[in-house]
């Protein structure tokens, strides 16, 4: 009988200690899985021919370009001759 009372007291103390413990931070969310690569149309720069995704290309009067410098150079060359 005294072992049963002792067991109840020990369980009660453990439960009380657990309930009074500082709340822990919520678990950090798992990092999101990277999105699978999607097919994207590739275009060639009208100045140098480098292929790049259409979303990264700069539109110009002579087509699409890989950068501002090539767009400017291409359009300046068209104006000269």
Task: Please give the structural blueprint.
Elements: H1 2-20, E1 42-44, E2 51-53, E3 58-60, E4 63-65, H2 68-80
Low-confidence stretches: none
Largest sheet: 2 strands, antiparallel
Strand sequence of the main sheet, in spatial order?
1-2
Proportion of beta-strand residues:
5-15%
Q: What would you note in describing this structure?
A:
The chain has a domain at 40-81. The strands form two sheets. The protein has a two-stranded antiparallel sheet. The chain is an alpha+beta fold and 81 residues long. The longest helix has 19 residues, at 2-20. It has two helices and four strands; from the N terminus they run H-E-E-E-E-H. The relative contact order is 0.11. The chain is rod-shaped.
Features:
81 residues; alpha+beta; two-stranded antiparallel ribbon; 2 helices; 40% helix; 15% strand
Summarize the structure.
With 81 residues, the chain is an alpha+beta fold. The chain has helices at 2-20, 68-80, and strands at residues 42-44, 51-53, 58-60, 63-65.
